[in-house]
Batch of 2 targets.
Target 1
Amino acid sequence: MPMDDVAQFDQGFADLDVTTDILPIKRSGNPISTKKKKKPITATPILHFLSTQSFASPFDINMAVDAGYKVVVPHTGVRLNDTQALVQDAIFSRPPEHGCRTAIFIGGKDALMALDMLTVAKTSLVPPFQLSALADPGGSFTTAAAMVACVESVYQKKTSRTLDGASVAVFGATGVVGFASAVIAARSGADVKVVSHIGLAALEPLVSAAKKRFGVTLKPVLGGRDSDKGKIVANADVVLCAAAAGVQVLKAKHFEKSKRTVVIADVNAVPPAGIEGVELFDFGRPIGKRGLLSVGPLAIGDIKYKTQAGLLRSMLRTDQSLMLDFNDAFAVARQLVRKKAR
Ligand SMILES: NC(=O)c1ccc[n+]([C@@H]2O[C@H](COP(=O)([O-])OP(=O)(O)OC[C@H]3O[C@@H](n4cnc5c(N)ncnc54)[C@H](OP(=O)(O)O)[C@@H]3O)[C@@H](O)[C@H]2O)c1
């Protein structure tokens, strides 16, 4: 990223306190009560990184350190059943007033597992002993939040409509980013089709989980062949592509018969683009004969990065326990996009 852009990002972020300005924070437990005059808490900020994979993402470790955590401890191969013991081990080892300087980051590659672990983390707290936790498996919640927030802004500017009632197609929806994007768009009122290139069976557990956990309906669609892709796109106001890195899923020809599509967005930054013609920093740039408004992976990445940094810092800036998921990520991403679009 060019240094000017980095400086601009930092400046944009410096003005924003996500804890007080944005988050409709869901607090778990009570504020730590003390009758004595509050002294600033100087305990070392520690982040325990719970990963369900055999490694902990270096991206997320770097983000945590840059956000202000002095000690970041990766715990790999963590299972749901391990969560309670790890959380309680972390809370009981520090005085309650230091609890707000201890945080859990839930990574991995499974969105539903991460949400389950977040729920267990919350129910494992034993007030006044507490900590905060953020679930962002594979960066999916912050990336999805950023993609939907960018798209919403571009779509609204063009049509004066929100995503409520818009038809949204999500390619790569069996991945963590695609699934989280689909749920966020559906919770914003969109009529969402989730697309897989291999078969509907891969989508079924996700569609059922979306209904059961979030009360939203995702429509599963098969989109492996050119003809299927053309039909799906022709009926979508917004097309989101969250397919695997370096895979081009949609070409310009798939949009030829689409009179309806307004915005297309792609999160894949590894060439070739997931959607032909989308460039890295696009933020509403018209492309192709129909002037489709393109949103690119690094425009999304900018908001994703700031959203994740903001959520990590918010856990350090409060004396209360925060339990943060994709809803919080979307609230922060929307504010950041509004600020950028001003
Ligand atoms: N811009 C950012 O800030 C940012 C941040 C994080 C991640 N990302 C990017 O987000 C994307 C999604 O990440 P993820 O971890 O969710 O990805 P993933 O699990 O690697 O892949 C997502 C989905 O892509 C689909 N796919 C794979 N090969 C395909 C092909 N040949 N044709 C069509 N679809 C194919 C698969 O779904 P089906 O087989 O069901 O079709 C798969 O479930 C990646 O490109 C990643 O690099 C971007």
Target 2
Amino acid sequence: MSSSAKRSGVWKYFVEVDKNKSKCNLCGVHLSRGGVGKTATTSTMKKHLQTKHKSEYDKVFGEAELGHYLSVPRAARDANPYKWWVSNKGHYPILGKVAAQFLSTPASSVYSERLFSEAGLIYEAKRSKLDPNRAEKLEILHHNLPLLNFNY
Ligand SMILES: [Zn+2]
């Protein structure tokens, strides 16, 4: 086998049985690679990892995706992020799911109602001269520090 045949990150989880077959190190399943020698591909192995061993798949391809995402030029500041992700979701199947989760509109108004309620607690009578920018920072810290387990 040539060294170029093992470039894909999926080989970390497979051993080559013969020129057309590979074996999963995690569950022992034998897979046909859809060709012989140089025409054999890693697509069935990649699909197996994606469907049977999701966390390992995310490790291998999530890092590659993230690396690629960080290497491409940033979208213009006034670009629509939804449109960018729609046109680029094929390149970033894992990050696309994360983006869809974070860019989507919450289905409930409860959260925004809670924000107004908490802003009312920040703007109490004893803080009547509180700078709006500082109040906004307090609100952001109030919601984001728990996400970091106060480990900042
Ligand atoms: Zn397996």
